[in-house]
Amino acid sequence: MPVTSTSTTDPTAPPAPHPGSRWLAPILLANLVAEVGIVVTGGLVRVTGSGLGCPTWPECVDGSITPTLEQAEGFHKYIEFGNRTLTGVLGLLALATVVAVWRWAPRRAMKVASVLVLAGVVGQAVLGGATVLLGLHPATVAAHFLVSMGLVAAASYLWFARHEDAVAPVPLVPVLVSRLAWATCAVAGLVLVLGTVVTGSGPHSGDADEPARFGLDARTVSWLHADVVMLFLGLVVATWLAARLTAGAAQGPARAWLVVLGVALAQGVVGYVQYFTDLPEALVIAHMLGATLLVVALTHGILALRRRTGAVST
């Protein structure tokens, strides 16, 4: 009798990952790093007063995309043009992210987030141009920064959710704890908004010659910002305790929110030190970097409240 060959493949096993999917993680990480990096370079533009180093848009100066030797803006033109160039790199990474996520990530939410990141980068380029054409009005500067925070959150979500499959993750904490975490994120958003009001009322608007201002008392809005930061820190502590008490054997939620607390405390220290030392440029940039890292930590904190399907929470 002929021998019938049998396959050892388990028909119920998930399909092997596509060989190209090994590119997914590096692309998502590069996208996140670039989103954080452009906030830092934007801070450099602001503290050096280089926001109008390229006085027009989309050209740097009338008749030239790149800075020219004849420009009167000095070194400011190179700083502003460098930030614009990074925007182009960010656009290419966002496009690569869309391609990679749509090919290799199974979750629909990730696909939507990748498109939002690409659209946001394009929108940021337009908003940046409007900011220049409007002479760095503090409202457009604030909007520019806040959109960047949204893009950092979306890029962080893509990075931390990269291992999830198409099945909805399993919650690790009660719904009230999740709501508390989201409320904490909402207050964090208010902290960021008030931070832009403080900046728009202080000395680092982005233009070295004619700084634009909201016309508000910088001391008053700074203390209002600090008060909301205190509320935010209290909510972070409450979320950490709630996650620790309700997640059972899963330690991931409490660990993630402990990281949020650590980043928030460090950011608060930098904020107070820069206020009492008359806003030195290095601390202003550090504070902007801290804001992006806080958004990354909060995004991770929200995602840590659920278990990836098939994954073991530790």
Automatic annotation (TrEMBL):
InterPro entries: COX15/CtaA_fam, COX15/CtaA_HemeA_synthase. It comes from the Bacteria. Pathway: Porphyrin-containing compound metabolism. The keyword Metal-binding applies. It is found in: Membrane. It is a multi-pass membrane protein. Its main location: membrane. The keyword Iron applies. Keywords: Cell membrane, Disulfide bond, Heme biosynthesis, Iron, Membrane, Metal-binding, Oxidoreductase, Transmembrane, Transmembrane helix. The chain crosses the membrane at residues 85-105, 112-135, 141-160, 180-202, 222-243, 255-276, 282-305. It holds the Pfam family COX15-CtaA. PANTHER family: HEME A SYNTHASE (PTHR35457). This is COX15/CtaA family protein. The lineage of its organism: Bacteria, Bacillati, Actinomycetota, Actinomycetes, Micrococcales.
